[in-house]
Amino acid sequence: MTQDQSDYASLDTSTIITLSELAQCCGLSDADLDELVDYNALAPLADTATERTFSAHWVMPLRAAARMRLDFDLDVFTMAILLGQLIQIDVLQRQVQSLKAQLPEHLRQL
Fold first, then answer.
1. Listing from the earlier edge strand, what are the strands of the sheet with 52-55?
2. What is the pLDDT of residues 3-39, one digit of tens each?
3. What is the gyration radius of the CA atoms in the chain, in angstroms?
4. Are the C-beta atoms of residues 42 and 83 closer than 8 Å to each other?
5. Domain containing 100 — which CATH number?
6. 76, 29 Cβ separation under 8 angstroms
């Protein structure tokens, strides 16, 4: 799969991408991603002798973490911690949205 970097934002999270594609679309090196995998901050779908593959759901949080890494001059270990926190925030936001959807209409604005 070869796509322009702007095309990655529209990927379905069920799409599978390679380590090199993930690195390219997030502005990170293959070595950075390997280090994130070593820290258990990034989980490959498959880890064969020839190639690691990942779910495209990693694209957006990795992009955000990579931007913050540049903005704040963070090392990869700190970026691994940040990535975990960004994912946790996303999970919590989705839970709040789900709970709000269950409220009666007149209570949703609160």
1. 16-18, 52-55, 46-47
2. 444 555 556 778 999 999 999 999 999 999 999 999 9
3. 16
4. yes
5. 1.10.1660.10
6. no
Number of domains in the chain: 1
Q: Which two tokens stand for residue 72?
A: 């704040």
Domain span including residue 23:
5-107
Q: How far apart are CA 32 and CA 69, in angstroms?
A: 12
Determine the Cα–Cα distance for residues 80 and 43; give it in Å rounded to an integer: 12
Structure tokens at 49: 């002798």
Q: What is the 3-state secondary structure (H, E, C) of the chain?
A: CCCCHHHHHHCCCCCEEEHHHHHHHHCCCHHHHHHHHHCCCCCCCEECCCCEEEEHHHHHHHHHHHHHHHHHCCCHHHHHHHHHHHHHHHHHHHHHHHHHHHCCHHHCCC
CA distances from residue 38 to 27, 52, 69 in whole angstroms, order as listed: 19, 13, 18
Q: Structure tokens of 79?
A: 């970026």
Q: Look up the pTM and report it.
A: 0.80
